[in-house]
């Protein structure tokens, strides 16, 4: 792992003033006193065999997230299948079809059901198999385990037992929850990255007990034994209570000794530990909730339609059976040719109620065609194919990680088209967790050239607007700005191209830059290559660089192969500073216990000099202090205090003469902050010997003090020193966003989607990212809700709650009173406040406020809160939510949301495994939603509507015919026609509709994000439309049946004088149905590839082919259909003319409807289709561009909104200028 | 992830990249027809223009058909007797003479039909009560299971079994014009497929109408089923409770105003279920018998289409919408904020 690297062995606790100092004795804290339930777990360290017997046998480290196993698959999956009402009905019908009451043969009922259920189950099995493979991948990971006699060997994770001693190496995941015994550092410290658990990016320090520090090599575990008594498995990530009994002494354990499964060891070569919780007992797995089976809104609505159809089915069955009973009672005795009653009471005039009951069963089966059995299976097939298109989309393939998008469950494709709110994780989703040093302000001068994207785009947009349709005019108006416009050089090109954000994507110009250095995107020749020596204020610049290279807690690692240093820093910012310092010529190269060595290219850039700085004290960073300082002595013996910290903190501590640059620096900081850069202010102070010595004494006293207030004391002492500072400058670090994130957010906002950011990070970071993603912008009113009630109140909890309630109420009031239509609000709330805000009595108040705000950022939220917020949004607004995240901490929210999207291609699979869709980059979300979601929604909606239409059209003809057969349950069609109707003759066209239909092409989808709103507004699957289709089905059935019956009433139907028998009428009627429904689907489609043509018209042809072949088969099979086409129907002109008139009559109302609707009340996609059809977009580019920009939803967030706001601001200024100018000119003229 | 997996990634990288094809990228060439006003009007007019002539043609074909319908069930029974008893009795004389007038010249062939009303040949119990296998092959004469309750008699199979055959229509008609007998051609009234394939030429009626209950007509046991065309016609069950079936043909022209005398053997019991019996003489054209509905239907639909076209044109003139006019986009129609 660490091949070719050299690392210094350090006692790291020396670097930490606050967190890692340990009182020398343990007397203050005794072992935990606990007994009884909840604390029963006993772990015999290094004696895993003890845990093989009850009662100490705990769960193995094998994890399984599958729904089924081999034994349970069949019963469970079958049970799942028959939970669908329709399937249950068909099962009943199939069973009943074995009895003589059935109107059809048993095979014709059982075969389709078996097919449908079998197919669905196969899909389930496949999906579960994939989950199993994922689990196995994790289970088969190897870790080093003590095998006895001090020998360690590799063993797969799943074979790990409680009590095992494991050795985990750097950058490896912990295989289970482990008690830290010792680490590669002498003082038993190790660093842990818990991004997978809580999304926090900075490393956490864990420390081993003093008592176990000695066990820091393999051999020492030969005879080690100890006992741990601790709490039972629970999902709480931040607590742990237990005692370690070792060497007849009891030591209390707390969370800082526990290494949790799925977190990762960082910056530490190796650690030893004892396995405490394995597998599903581990905290992260306890946190995992069963993945709920999700169903899309459309599917839920479809269930309601099925219920309606069931009602209809029961209704007509009742009518039919009552009619039958009446006929049986009053007329059947007269119908001598039926020889009633029969022996089985099916036709017994003496017991009509009994016969009627039997008939009810018959009718329920007969009219089963109303309920499309093939609907589920068709939808399943369609969804699998849609998912395939998602998986295969080359535009959602990430080159870097080599991962394509993946639809992990295909149930939710159409739900993608109806999303209203996106809840996003920050780290790893929006950002890459990489910091780039981008700009700095030194001694009042800002360095770093890159212009703000917003500025550029705003200026460009304004130029476009002014330019208008007449470039001449534009030139008259704009020349004033000409000299200052940065895009002037390539203005011509820009004018031709469009104001797309792509023009300002940073990545574009990255390509022509010199090879990118990780963590460093600074561009300014004034500072690079030693040029800074020519700048004014060289002293300050030197100091600035020194602060960067000295004020930190990182350690360097020499990569022997390349000769460069890499740095292991606690936070990525610090790493970025060190890289920046190195690039500027101040290479931090060595840290010893007391000194830091820096290779400085100063005073001459070409000859580096290694200088030693003695570190006297290190006052480290805590979230409360928001600053860190280092006190050191340079080679000349001067004592310096170098400090970096949050600007507000530093500014408060400046000395009077240290405020020289405060004004310009503040301005720069604001600029940086607005574009979402993370800023820190740097300052220094010179100390004289005496002053330092006095202070150091105090400090040492505080450091060695015993008791709980040690930290407080240290803080106070540190505070004394960090005063009278002199401001040097400020840094701006970019928390690097993933590629295309701002653009994607912009597009999503334009499509009318709301974006909430839920992050485990602290508020400042979250706000920075809010700016970087354009979720926040200048001029937006930020509503920060934080828990800050004074703890002195009698009931602190209540006080906090009241305060939060007040804040929410005030903010709501403020929004209500706001008059400016452009005003936008942003809600920022921290985790602690959220705890209260999510309580039942306040949550809707909170939700209402949040919904009124343009953007919502929740910071410091726990995984559970993420899930709770998601649930609140989902249930409170009743709209579709989508959660996107990458880590295990997002699993809850991913599972809770209507759609969960996982970011794949990064470490940790938990999020992906819990998700419904996985994509490699956040930016693919746009394509996933706006194109695939939009299409899938429309496809599925149209498909289901059509399905109901066709089955109603077909099923009702059976009912009408029944009325003409004395309600006897006879069908006019051959059994085979009926089987084929759903399975072959009409299923493929509808599948092609569901798979290939496109209302507009993918580019247009992207260009007109407003089209997406058709989904969330549910324009294509509302009840109006559904009933419309049902009405159409009813109409079609009436036309088909009655036209046929009247035309074939009693007279001869061909010149040969023959009259039509039942099979002739039935076959003609069926021909009409096939034509009518297939023409209907052709009218429904707006996109014909050869596949659609082939399947639609192929279905019609198939029908004739089938009829021909069926007719040619022996009459034993074909019965009355024998030679029906060749002999009876085809030669009869009336057969063909009936088909024609019925088909036209059936489709005429629909055609009229769509023709009139499109012409006089067109929907957006109609107009766009026409524009495209006539090539107007090419002819009139200006119009096309204008409409595209208008098609954006009016949003208050996103890049565009920000540009708009900026333009408003600029225009306002211009107007002022003009008016003053105008005023002057009038004065002049007068 | 462990380093082991990391190293395996590059190799799998290539294979995971989706291959480009127009199919998987959903970029297949497609025609995207659009209902432009021009197309709509053209379609409607075209349908109208095609349908109305078809309708007129059908109507004229139907008008050329000459049809004589004579209901005889009421008149052919003595009014003083109980109808069912009369018809069921062996002893009564069921001969009945009717006189028909030819309204217009009827060109040969003139088809003779009997029409039954309120007879549920499409009743499920009735339809199922037959054995196609038995009808086809003498070896299958024992396959009578679907034929209940007319399957067996004294445990001997009935051929042809089942209610359909058992209830065979058995009225007979004799025709004469001006005292001259008109010959009735009863050949080829059934479908060829029935004669040649469905009904076996070696299957002879057996034990037919031997039970205590006598249904309808009897069959000559010496003639194979395939040649019993009346049975074949009857066994093609009708779709509706009111139906005509071909009885025979008169192979000569009937002049207008000629009087035809029909001698009917009124055997069939339609009285029990209140059915009507009619004798029908009809000529045919290419659309078959008299069928005005089809022609009228075509004319109606065609007319509707023309009406639609007109309405569309009028509406379009009042409120024209140029195709692809962006002002109809929703964001232009209801500007946000209103």
UniProtKB/TrEMBL annotation, chain A:
Name the PROSITE patterns for this protein.
Answer: ATPASE_E1_E2 (PS00154)
Catalytic-site annotation from UniProt: 425
User: Which Pfam families did the record assign?
Assistant: Cation_ATPase (PF13246), PhoLip_ATPase_C (PF16212), PhoLip_ATPase_N (PF16209)
Per the record, the GO terms for biological process are: phospholipid translocation
Q: Which GO terms describe its cellular component?
A: plasma membrane
Q: Where in the cell is it found?
A: Membrane
Kindly list the positions annotated as binding Mg(2+): 425, 427, 886, 890
Query: What UniProt keywords apply to this chain's record, in alphabetical order?
Result: ATP-binding, Isopeptide bond, Magnesium, Membrane, Metal-binding, Nucleotide-binding, Translocase, Transmembrane, Transmembrane helix, Ubl conjugation
Cofactor(s) needed: Mg(2+)
- Entries under SUPFAM superfamilies matching the protein: Calcium ATPase, transduction domain A, Calcium ATPase, transmembrane domain M, HAD-like, Metal cation-transporting ATPase, ATP-binding domain N
UniProt-recorded Gene Ontology molecular function terms: ATP binding; ATP hydrolysis activity; ATPase-coupled intramembrane lipid transporter activity; magnesium ion binding
Superkingdom field: Eukaryota
Q: How does it sit in the membrane?
A: Multi-pass membrane protein
Primary location group: membrane
Q: Which residues cross the membrane?
A: 85-103, 109-126, 305-326, 358-379, 947-964, 976-996, 1026-1049, 1064-1083, 1095-1113, 1133-1156
Please give the family membership noted in the entry.
Answer: Belongs to the cation transport ATPase (P-type) (TC 3.A.3) family. Type IV subfamily.
Name of the molecule in the record: Phospholipid-transporting ATPase
Q: Which organism is it from?
A: Coffea arabica
Q: What is the lineage of its organism?
A: Eukaryota, Viridiplantae, Streptophyta, Embryophyta, Tracheophyta
The gene from which this protein is expressed is LOC113742066
UniProtKB/TrEMBL annotation, chain B:
**Where do transmembrane segments lie in this chain?**
34-57, 296-318
Tell me the InterPro entries matching this sequence.
CDC50/LEM3_fam
Keyword Chaperone belongs to the record: no
**Which UniProt keywords are given for this protein, alphabetically ordered?**
Membrane, Transmembrane, Transmembrane helix
- Highest taxon of source: Eukaryota
A single GO CC term, please? endoplasmic reticulum
Predominant localisation class: membrane
The cellular location(s) given in this protein's UniProt record come to:
Membrane
Q: Does the keyword Metal-binding feature in the UniProt annotation?
A: no
Record family assignment: Belongs to the CDC50/LEM3 family.
Name used for this protein in its record? ALA-interacting subunit
Q: Which organism is it from?
A: Coffea arabica (Arabian coffee)
